[in-house]
Input
Amino acid sequence: MIVLGSTSEVAQAFVEKALQEGEKYEKIYLLTSNKETTERFARHIDVKFLQQAEVIELDLMKEIDYTRFDHVNSNVLFCATGYLGDGTEEGLYDNKNTERIININYSKLVPVMNYFAQKFESRRSGTIIGLSSVAGDRGRQSNFIYGSAKAAFTAYLSGLRNYLFDKKVHVLTIKPGFMETKMTEGLPLNPRLTAKPKQAAASIYNAYKKQKNVAYVLPVWGIIMMIIRNIPEFIFKKLKL
Output
């Protein structure tokens, strides 16, 4: 398995869920911008599951040397890379904040995804799992920079799924709603609409095994976003969402 964004609590929970379910991997490649934290997780799965892992540094905000990934091969790619950024009015007009949100969630991420997608295509097998967001389903004033980047990533995954279908590679788009993670720490989240990492991992694993195309971590978010998408624009633009 290849994991992008391997410091993510959801990514780590998914790795553990897969191993608990008896999945076997010659090696798990943990790509991360935080090598020290990820090495602790690598030691954890080695001790708990006797699973060999390799930690590879990847910082999307720096120039990437793709030759470092030449040896990386797997049948599963799990991408949990994401950056929420500052969604306040102050953050909206901070170009560094805006650029970082767009770069990490989309523009710098897609070339990395393409690099591994080409490997999957050449082998004509595998599954790519990408974590997008319900924020990408419709732009809302509270987080539309982040949402626009996630909307672009959702469209990318949709196109990639279409392109790779006859190459025998499956692409799964995951749309989490609220999740209890470091990224959302301190935000006033409704507990009934918020998934814990282990809960999210179980939902994602189930969607992966069923080869779904698009899945919401909590099914209720599918209903919520269907309603939000269908609110007429002349009403929607007046709402404080």
